[in-house]
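hiii so um. not sure if this is the right channel but i have a protein structure encoded as tokens and i wanna go backwards to a sequence. like what aa goes where. can anyone help
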């Protein structure tokens, strides 16, 4: 039976009234398991107005009390870890251990947010002038919005909600319509943790809801994560409407393998980073760049048996599944279309997953692993984000050629180098024009107390996600200059004065 999902508004599950719905699939079986309401502009506006009414009291609540809600959320996320992971895998398709990682990486940002009282402290200058003190405070923006992608339905909503709420804002979360159940469960958890109603509104929807957020004058800031064309659209429309906007987009992450690298280590890393979560990670490695023909030949020789051993299956099959299905039939078609373009444009398909099928799950959206060799920068499989279990190998003649490839690519989310040479590693980290760099680490996702963000077409806006940047993004600085006269002061002052 198809479940009808809801919005979560003013602390309640609320049915959609627009009459529009999107199907939510179980990607392993291909069945529609739920339908999610797509909010109308009127539904969205009502949720925003209710959030605006609730926010001042929350903004005036002392930061430590808000942090106590976060403490409780951490406890409840841990309590519900298995239940959340199961719901996440059922809609997304990733394996249960990977779903737990998705929740855990979000939970760690909530842990960081427990430090909000410290992070929100302003600056103070005693006696900036005679009898004058100067201080700054960080104040909430009011109502802010988060628009999130399908591929991390727990982690990315938590990256948005935790800092925004800890700073005293109310948030409208518009999660991906492909896997909306976990964000709804997260909203329930915040309520149980003591969050006042109206402070976290989950409004499900599509472009209509997104456009409504971008055009609503109450919404002060928008944090987006998703594909680059939508990131660019949201950034320009949101900024044109005077909002503070940060948008994180797609990726094409290169891993450079130097001739002195430990090739077994590099091959293991490539297989995990290339095929984990079916390649549906913005920090997945999708391009391997071995330096030198001998390195390339040896690497391919080590990769092939590892890739052929990968176990692809539903999350219900237990812990020995390496990755699950991709999210929709359309995603599968797009991936297979790009694989075909790679063959047509002359790349060498060394591992061919096109005929992959799983008995009992023939209607599921499974894609077998693919490995391409001799990919060149003019090919579509190199230029485009495939977001599937497809690894492309571009052979580079030198380190300079390898670093040049990564630097010339339009995306700049993550990258990695595998080498035993500290000097090369340092040079790479210093020169590369990419936001997150791994040295013998294939997926360099920064921890919660650092910040996460790509460069070039992978990130728009000047502040990163989570860590200290998030507390800047979700607050405004106000600077106060105060003088308390001790006696009668006569006469006005007409000059713009320096402090002396
Ligand atoms: P997507 O761009 O299709 O959707 C993201 C959000 O935008 C969803 O909430 C969706 O409802 C909304 N949206 C979709 N089309 C829209 C439109 N035309 N107008 C307005 N809103 C629209 O992305 P996705 O497929 O859900 O997620 C995968 C993408 O996200 C990949 O490109 C991946 O690299 C990227 N991603 C980036 C990061 C990062 O931090 N850089 C992290 C995770 C995912």
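sure thing!! here u go:
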């Amino acid at each position: 039976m198809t479940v009808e999902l809801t919005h979560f508004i003013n602390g309640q599950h609320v049915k959609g009234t627009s009459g529009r719905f999107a199907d939510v699939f179980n990607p392993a079986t291909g069945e529609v398991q739920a339908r999610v309401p797509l909010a109308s502009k009127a539904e969205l506006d009502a949720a925003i107005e209710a959030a605006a009414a609730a926010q001042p009291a929350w903004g005036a609540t002392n930061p430590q009390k808000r942090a106590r809600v976060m403490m409780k959320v951490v406890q409840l996320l841990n309590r519900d870890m298995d239940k959340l992971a199961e719901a996440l895998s059922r809609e997304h398709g990733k394996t249960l251990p990977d779903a737990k990682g998705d929740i855990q990486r979000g939970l760690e940002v909530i842990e960081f947010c427990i430090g909000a009282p410290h992070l929100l402290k302003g600056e103070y200058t005693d006696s900036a002038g005679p009898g004058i003190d100067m201080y700054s405070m960080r104040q909430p923006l009011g109502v802010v919005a988060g628009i999130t992608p399908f591929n991390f339905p727990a982690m990315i909503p938590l990256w948005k909600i935790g800092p925004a709420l800890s700073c005293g804002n109310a948030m409208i979360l518009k999660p991906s319509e492909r896997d909306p159940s976990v964000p709804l469960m997260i909203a329930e958890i915040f309520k149980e943790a003591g969050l006042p109603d109206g402070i976290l509104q989950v409004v499900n929807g599509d472009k209509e809801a997104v456009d409504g957020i971008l055009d609503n004058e109450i919404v002060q800031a928008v944090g987006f994560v998703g594909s680059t064309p939508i990131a660019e659209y949201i950034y320009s429309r949101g900024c044109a409407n005077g909002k503070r906007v940060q948008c994180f987009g797609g990726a094409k992450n290169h891993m450079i393998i130097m001739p002195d690298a430990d090739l077994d280590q590099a091959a293991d890393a490539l297989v995990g980073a290339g095929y984990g979560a079916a390649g549906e990670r913005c920090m997945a490695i999708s391009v391997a760049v071995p330096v030198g023909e001998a390195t390339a030949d040896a690497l391919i020789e080590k990769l092939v048996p590892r890739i052929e051993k990968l176990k692809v299956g539903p999350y219900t099959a237990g812990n020995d599944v390496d990755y699950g299905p991709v999210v929709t039939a359309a995603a599968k078609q797009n991936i297979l279309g790009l694989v075909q373009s790679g063959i047509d444009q002359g790349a060498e398909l060394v591992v061919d997953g096109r005929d992959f099928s799983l008995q009992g799950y023939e209607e599921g959206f499974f894609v077998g692993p693919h490995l391409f060799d001799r990919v060149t920068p003019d090919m579509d499989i190199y230029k485009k984000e495939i977001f599937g279990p497809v690894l492309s190998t571009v052979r580079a003649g030198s380190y300079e050629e390898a670093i040049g490839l990564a630097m010339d690519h339009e995306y700049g989310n993550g990258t990695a180098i595998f080498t035993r040479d500290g000097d090369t590693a340092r040079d790479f980290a210093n020169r590369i024009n990419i936001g997150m760099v791994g040295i013998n680490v294939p997926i360099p996702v920064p921890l919660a107390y650092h910040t996460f963000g790509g460069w070039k077409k992978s990130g728009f806006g000047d502040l990163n996600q989570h860590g200290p940047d998030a507390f800047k993004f979700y607050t405004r600085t106000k600077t106060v200059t105060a003088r308390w006269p001790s006696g009668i002061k006569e006469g006005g002052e007409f000059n713009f004065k320096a402090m002396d």
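oh and The chain has a mean pLDDT of 96.
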